[in-house]
């Protein structure tokens, strides 16, 4: 085993809660809502799936449907999809919809899972290459830098920079090429069985984690170290999928 590829949201990092997201933007805009109104708006935003990295939409409005499936292919499509969802929720000022989108891209909106630093650091100590492969519409590198984790990542392959999104094998092939590794010697770690599972088409092993709040998943990444060790001991073998 020579490299591990990780998804970003729901795998290495978790976005803040919808209520925290809305509170942060209201504070930035110097606006206030009564607690009941704030809770209602946050609940409506969550139901719409308006927070990137949060829950998916409970229903897909017609005006967003055309871009939803390809939203991660460009920055413009990503913004259009999520602000389109947000605008189905009544807020006291229309400018808040773009402010909400902008806030989710800030490092302060993201927290690493409790074992992220430990696992990335251990892989670095073992000489295992690390890549991040994400369906995303913006540059996540500043998030890693702000949290002191960029030194553990050798390459980033972000869908919007390539116009290709997972599960398309081309994105995983690009990530393996960036690390100069054979896909058969790689583990892909992610929380989306369809998107991240696409790596198996290249011969990568795939390991899934649960997309949970950070406090509820303290050690979900640690089994990756055991998987890497096992693959090294057996000197390869058929790709495996673990849950």
Automatic annotation (TrEMBL):
<dbReference type="InterPro" id="IPR036412">
    <property type="entry name" value="HAD-like_sf"/>
</dbReference>
<keyword id="KW-0378">Hydrolase</keyword>
<dbReference type="GO" id="GO:0016787">
    <property type="term" value="F:hydrolase activity"/>
</dbReference>
<protein>
    <submittedName>
        <fullName>HAD family hydrolase</fullName>
        <ecNumber>3.1.3.-</ecNumber>
    </submittedName>
</protein>
<dbReference type="InterPro" id="IPR006439">
    <property type="entry name" value="HAD-SF_hydro_IA"/>
</dbReference>
<dbReference type="InterPro" id="IPR023214">
    <property type="entry name" value="HAD_sf"/>
</dbReference>
<dbReference type="Pfam" id="PF00702">
    <property type="entry name" value="Hydrolase"/>
</dbReference>
